[in-house]
Structures are given as C-alpha cells and as structure tokens.
Amino acid sequence: MASETKVSIKNLYKIFGKDPVGMVTHVQNGTTKKELLEKYGSVLALNDVNIDIPARGIQVIMGLSGSGKSTLIRHVNRLIEPTSGEIFVGDKNILEMSKLELREFRRHTASMVFQKFALLPHHTIVENVSYGLTIQNVPKQEAAERSQKWIDRVGLAGYEKHYPNQLSGGMQQRVGLARALATDGEILLMDEAFSALDPLIRTDMQDVLLGLQEELHKTILFITHDLDEALRIGENIAILRDGLVVQKGTPQEIVLNPADKYVTDFIKDINRGRVLRVSSIMENTKLKKGPEVEKNMILEDALQIISKVGASKGIVTENGTPIGSVEISRMIDAIVKPEEKTEETSSYH
Amino acid sequence: MERQELRDLKKYIDISFKDFSRTYGDSIESFFDPLLYFLVWFEKLLINAPWPLIIFVIAVLAWIGSRNIYVIAGTVSSFLLIGYFGMWEDTMSTLAIISICTLLCISIGIPIGIFMARSDRLQSVVNPVLDVMQTIPSFVYLIPVVMLLGIGKVPGLIAVCIYAIPPIVRLTNLGIRLVDKEVLEASESFGASYSQKLFGVQIPLALPNIFAGVNQTIMMALAMVVIASMIGVKGLGVPVLRAVSNQYLALGLLNGLAIVALAIIFDRISQSYGKRLQKHLESEHGV
C-alpha cells in the first residue's frame, strides 16, 4: 500500500508528576524509568516515541500493561496532553490546535473505540451509534438514518431499541465500533478494543474489523497486548516497552528479526507458520515443475499444498506468474522455534 | 478569656447584628417579597380549590411517579382521612410550604452540587458548611433569621431550606463524581462540548443519585414543619405545638400522623420515580 503518512508522532514524551518538562531533560540525559521514579517520584509514560502511521493502513501498537500504549493512543486525539513532542495529522500539528479546532478534529476526523466499550447506558443502541452525529448537531432523524447503515453493517439489525446492558460484550463492542464509524472520520483509534472479549468473539471481531477495512480503508491505530492479535491484523507493528519503542516493522520482520530479548520472549510462543509468508523465505531460483503457492500465502497453507503432492519444493507465484521457489526444509526451519538464548531469565512483568 | 471580656464580646456581636438588621432588615425583607407573594398565592390556591380536585391532581401525580395502584389508593385514602378529621386546611398549608421549599432547594442545590463536582477546592469549602447546616440545632439559626426578618412565612421557609438543602447538594455532587470516567472520556473523544457532556452524560447518569437527594430533601423539610411553626408558619405544626403546650394527646397524635402520611406519600412517589429512571440498568444481558 502507498507509503503516504497520515499520522506522524515525533519525539513524544509524557511524564506524570511534578515539573514534567524539567524531567524530560533528565530522561534525555539517560535517566531510566526506574531511576526517575525513585529519585523524583515522576512516572515516565512515554519516552521519545517516533511513529509514522501510514494512511489507510492498520498500525498496531503492542506492549504489556504499563508500557504506555493506552497513554500513547490518547495523545493522538489529545485526551492526554503531551509533555513535549509533536503529533502531525496530515500537515496539521494537533498540539497547536485551539479548543474549538480540536473539538472539530474529534468530531470529524478521529473517532475512538474503547476497551470497556464506554457506551452510554441510558441510551438505546441506535442513540449510541448516532452519538457522534448528535454531538455534531445533526438532526435526530437524519442521525438515526445514517446510523442504521452501520448498525446493519456490524450485524446488529433488530437491536436498535435495546439498551447496552441487554447485549453481550461482543455485541456491545460492535455498537462501539459502529459508533466510531458513524462519524465517517478518516482515523480510527482502537484502545484494546477487543481485549475484554472471549477468544472466539475476539477472532470474530477481528474478522469484522478486517472486513470493514477492506472497503473503508481507514487509518487505524490499534492498541493491544495480545501478540497473536497484533500479528493477525497489523500491517505495521510497533512494540512498546516502558514507554520506549523497542521495535517497529511488519509482522514478518518482527518474527524473523526480533530486535532484542524482550521481543524474542514475546514471539516465543506464537504459531510462526500462521504469521510468516512465503515471500519472506523464498529464493529467486526458478523452478520448472512443482506445486504453485501464492507469494502472500502463510507457510502453514503453503506447506499443506506442497506436501499434498509429495514435492520438496514449490513454485512461488505473484498474480499467477512464477517469481521464485521455496524449499520445504527451509519452510520447516522457519516455523521451528528459534533456539532459546541462554541469558538469565528476565523480569518484564 | 476573662469574664468581663467575654461579656463584652457577646454584647458586641449582639449589638452589631442588631444594627445590621435595623439598617438592612427592611431591604432584605423586600428582597424576599416575591417569594412571599408566591407562597401566599400558592397556599390560597391549595386551600380554596375544591378538595376532590386536589385529591385528583395528587392521584395523577402519584400515577406519574409510581405507576403503582397501591400507592395511589394509599394516597387517596390518606387525604380522605385527613379531610374527615378536619385537618385539610393545615395539611394544604404544609403542602404549600413543602412544595415551595423543595423547588427552592432543587433550584439552588443542584447547581451548587454541579459546581462542587467540578472543583475539589469548592468541595472542600462547601462540605464543612453543609455539615454545620445539618448538625447545628435549628433553634440557633432561627435567632438571626427572626432578628432579620421577624416572624412569618419567609423566615420559616428559609429555616426549613437551611435544614433541607444539604442532601440534594451532596448527592448531586456525589452522583456526578460517580459517573463512569470511561463514558465521559468517550463523550469527550467524540468532541462533546462542556454542556453536551453535562446535560448529555453527567446529569442523566447522576439522576438516580440526584433523585435520592430530592427525596431526602423532602423528608427533611417535613421534619422541620413543627419547628417552623414556632416562628409563624401555618400548617400541621401549629396544632402539634399547641398540643405539646396543653397536653392534648389526641390533637398531637392526629396531626403528627398527618405529617407521617405526607412523608410516606412523598417518599414512595419520589422513590419509585427514581427507580424508574434506572430502568435501563435493570434488564441485564441474559436475564
């Protein structure tokens, strides 16, 4: 997809506590999060974060709890003010926006989906979905009509007159998603949107999101602590630890070349066969005969095709034309867990 | 402190307040004139209206509030008994002052509660004031009120309001502070303005608590009826007071029970209305 940048976060720092601006200098001079807390009682939430989020793509920010990811996403619509840094949306620095400009930005450009749904309990589903439009002073009738499209799209037709409490968690988050989509903003901010759901429902919602994205092409910033989720939906992933971005890249890059032990630990238990794609390990040597596998196929599927016919190699194709080959032994190597490094056990929690 | 000094201090306070009330008493009294006219007008309206009409109106209010046939039946029969035992006029007077006091407390108390919820500093200032208002013996603040405004309906109304306003202020403040932070954040993230947040999220979600406050305010106002009658407020308190000083057991009991009847009616109606406001919370998923 095009590499045009929609949201650009530059040198973002966020420090909670007394004299946060003064603390930035300490952090820039190498004071760690732990030292800052012990010496000054200040909490370093974000440490020099730089992320460029491509337009119309899904950028995942992932990290464990306390890594600052929820703080980070709240900077994009300025629910939290940064201590220092810049955030550009298009060519506008949202930190320079006045209160009114910011309100317009939130109403029309960026909408948010919350971990605990955050629906209005005293409003019906249709009123909840049209909430963003009501805030924009769209007449009630028109708002309801425009919302109906999204209610149908997320599969909640028939529940319009229900109250949020009457729905299950998965259904409530569909409402949350529809509410965010109803304002037709270009940017969708999703703060651990599916983390509170059961695993099956979560996969379901990921499918809903990916399906919607195929036709809507929004710029999505997705926060999660679940690596499987990150690898499944992210086109780009940034891994956050203690407020610091430790690695940025595509799922392939992160799985094949983890930047440090922290990331290695993270990816240890994932099913690599479902993440890695043929293109990441193919060779340029062309084969004349053999089973054909698509370049973007995940290894698990490709292995199945190749082993079915009993071959040891497969032809890699792109849109039907052969571009290289892939060996079954290499594929197996890639899927097998990398050897554990014999460093001392870490304490990341 | 020396005895002499203490006496001087007390004298000084007394004299300066007397001077103050001599100078400004009249203008303060005329400031409350519209309230007095309204109170008198409303009391006359209730007393002069035909009793079946009053009972009908109250029954309709009970229906709007509770949607419960037993509450309505209880309300109507209580009022019939009150009329039968010759307490109709006094009851109407009490009803008038309670209604107006409640309106006054709501219109002053809710905004104060809203401002308190916004500012921790204001809360730390107002809370002790509310404590004083609730715990100071009512006779103590009757003195300056009577000195300033004399004896009559308005000082009585003010005395009742001082006693009855704290719960509505407190519960409005509490209700707004208890509103789910995430919901408020969501509202903010969609670009809600301050008033859109206040009237669209905070007040509606605080309404059950605010309503508990209204209920408490009504109850406390009723509790003040007898004391207010000491400074010239007409109503059910007057015969109770007479009964106390003359040892008329039956008279005291009847009027006392009439006050109880009013209290229970108000309580049941406002409580069930408050509960209905939370209807959206009742039907949980899967129940």
Q: What overall form of chain B do the CA principal axes indicate?
A: flat
Largest interface, with counts of residues having CB < 8 Å to the other chain, equals: A-B, 31 and 23 residues
Note the total helix count of chain A.
Answer: 14
What is the radius of gyration of chain A computed over CA atoms, rounded to a whole number of angstroms? Answer: 23 Å
Helix content of chain A: 25-40%
Query: Which quaternary structure do these chains form?
Result: heterodimer
- Overall mean pLDDT of chain A stands at 88
What portion of residues of chain B is helical? Answer: over 70%
Strand content of chain B: under 5%
* Beta-strand percent range of chain A: 15-25%
Largest sheet of chain A: 6 strands, mixed
Mean pLDDT of chain B: 90
Low-confidence stretches of chain A: 341-349
Instruction: Note the run of SSEs of chain B as H and E.
Output: HHHHHHHHHHHHHH
Distance between the termini of chain A: 36 Å
Q: Report the end-to-end length of chain B measured between terminal Cα atoms.
A: 69 Å
Helix run count of chain B: 14
What radius of gyration of chain B results from the CA coordinates? 22 Å
Q: What would a concise description of this structure say?
A:
The complex is a heterodimer of chains A (349) and B (287). By secondary structure, chain A is α/β, with parallel strands linked by helices. Chain A has helices spanning 20-28, 33-40, 69-76, 99-108, 125-129, 131-135, 140-153, 169-181, 199-216, 227-233, 251-256, 261-267, 299-308, 328-335; strands at 5-16, 43-54, 58-62, 84-89, 92-93, 110-113, 187-191, 219-224, 236-241, 244-249, 292-294, 313-318, 321-327.
Task: Describe the structure in your own words.
- The complex is a heterodimer of chains A (349) and B (287).
- With 349 residues, chain A is of the alpha/beta class.
- Chain A is 37% helix and 23% strand.
- Chain A is built from 14 helices and 13 strands.
- Chain A has a six-stranded mixed beta sheet, sandwiched between helices. A four-stranded antiparallel beta sheet of chain A has the order 2-1-4-5, with helices on both faces. Chain A has a three-stranded mixed beta sheet with strand order 11-12-13.
- In chain A, a hairpin with a 2-residue loop joins β12 and β13.
- In chain A, α7 (140-153) packs across α8 and α13 (299-308) packs antiparallel against α14 (328-335).
- Mean pLDDT of chain A is 88; it is low at 341-349.
- Chain B has 287 residues and is mostly helical.
- Chain B contains 14 helices and no strands.
- In chain B, α4 (69-84) packs antiparallel against α13, α5 (88-118) runs antiparallel to α10 and α8 (153-177) packs across α10 (194-223).
- Chain B is flat and about 65 Å long.
- In chain B, 34% of the residues are buried.
- The interface between A and B is medium-sized, with 31 and 23 residues.
